[in-house]
Amino acid sequence: MNDNAELLRRLANVIRFGTVDSIQMKPPRVRVATGNLVTTWIPWLTLRAGSAVTWWPPTLGEQVIVLAANGELTTAVALLGLYGEAAPAPSDSDAANITHYPDGARVSYDPASSTGAFTGVTDLHIDASGTLHIDATRVILNADVVINGSVTQGGGAITSNGVVVHTHQHGGVKSGGDTSGGPV
Prior knowledge:
The chain is mainly beta. Among the domains are: 3-80, CATH 2.40.50.230; 89-123, no CATH class. It contains one helix and ten strands, in the order H-E-E-E-E-E-E-E-E-E-E. The chain has one helix spanning 3-14; strands at residues 15-24, 29-34, 37-38, 63-67, 77-82, 97-100, 106-110, 115-119, 159-160, 163-164. InterPro entries: Gp5/Vgr_OB, GpV-like_apex, GpV/Gp45, Vgr_OB-fold_dom_sf.
């Protein structure tokens, strides 16, 4: 191969577009179909791989960019995350941050409206070895609630079906007076 042909080959391989052809989890690698070839096993780029580490494997058919140092595909890495017909953008907002999962779950936050949501999740577990704080003007639970542990309430009235529990009295109870008195 002459020098010009080799230079052109390398130049063409510096940046290539393709799709994930196959995935290997240990060690994390993909093969990418790009043009008329399929790469050898190459690593994919992740958000973090230092003291904080993220794990989010690619999916078959996901569009990627192959970056190869000096145009040598043996040095290539796959840069994940190009939108396409098979995986269109989940929004057209210029501010929102959205992750849409294949099972229908969705995590979103829109700083323009200061609203967020975590929806479509069957089970959610929060494990805090310390204290879990929820600071809000109002909390609404649309579910049966089970509390395994003591409950301390302060700072306001507790109502049940419109009755303020701590001031509620019963009339007509015969125990030496006309009412049962207030709570003790």
